[in-house]
């Protein structure tokens, strides 16, 4: 365990954080927990049903998410960071507005 500051509104508290002895990544213990890839593919499916997105387009988004280093790493990634990556990938391939994409999250 490593003692690090907590990410909250006070910013003055510290707490022990577990870390990986192989790579040194410190575990995210905040309330902003990352989601597994299945969650994002489910959101992608809901979007595709609403806007008639092709399988090829969905595949391109999933490949881009998988190519992003650490996207599926719930140990160190935050949900907020995942949402930004997901929204950018969907905007790039589906040509939808950010507010529309965020309404599915």
Question: What is the domain total for the residues?
Answer: 2
Instruction: Count helical runs.
Output: 4
The average pLDDT score comes to: 84
Gyration radius over CA: 16 Å
Structural class of the helices, strands and pairings? Answer: mainly alpha
Question: How many extended strands?
Answer: 2
Poorly predicted regions are none
Give the amount of beta strand, in percent: 5-15%
Order of helices and strands: EEHHHH
Terminal CA distance reads 33 Å
The proportion of residues forming helix, as a percent range, comes to 40-55%
Largest sheet: 2 strands, antiparallel
So what's the overall shape? elongated
The spatial strand order of the largest sheet comes to: 1-2
Structural write-up:
There is one protein chain. By secondary structure, this protein is mainly alpha-helical. It folds into 2 domains: 1-31, no CATH class; 32-105, no CATH class. It is built from 4 helices and 2 strands. The protein has a two-stranded antiparallel sheet with strand order 1-2. Helix 1 (37-51) runs antiparallel to helix 2 (55-67) and helix 2 packs antiparallel against helix 3. The radius of gyration is 16 Å and the shape is elongated.
